[in-house]
Amino acid sequence: MSKVKAGGSSKNIHNNAGQRLGVKRFGGQKVSAGEVLVRQTGATKIAGPGTYISRNFTIHAAKDGVVGFRKVKKVSFTGRSNPRTQVVVE
Question: If you compute the radius of gyration of the chain from its CA atoms, what whole number of angstroms results?
C-alpha cells in the first residue's frame, strides 16, 4: 500500500516573464528629466541629488544631466551602517 495520498506533480507552473530589472542608464550617460535610471525590488540603490524614487523603488532623473554612482554608508534603524550605491544626476 502507499504511505501517502496521491500528490500528483505540477510541471508547467514556472513560466513567468522576467521583470526586466537592473540599471538602465550607466555612469557618464546624459539623461533628461523623468528618465528611468534603475529598476529594482527594494532599495538596493538609493536616490541621491538630482534623482527621486517612486513607489516601486524605481529611481528616476529629476533633472537633465549626467548620471553618476557613489558608494555611501546608509545607517539603518538599528544604528548599523550598510554600504549602498547612491545614484546621482549632476
Answer: 20
The model's pTM is: 0.80
The C-alpha cell at 6 is 496521491
DSSP output for 10-50: --TT--PPP---EESS-TT-EE-TT-EEEE-SSSSEEE-TT
**pLDDT (tens digit per residue) in 39-52:** 999 999 999 999 99
Q: Which three cell numbers stand for residue 73?
A: 554608508
Q: Are strands 36-39 and 81-89 parallel, antiparallel or unpaired?
A: unpaired
Alpha-carbon gap, residue 71 to 57, rounded angstroms = 18
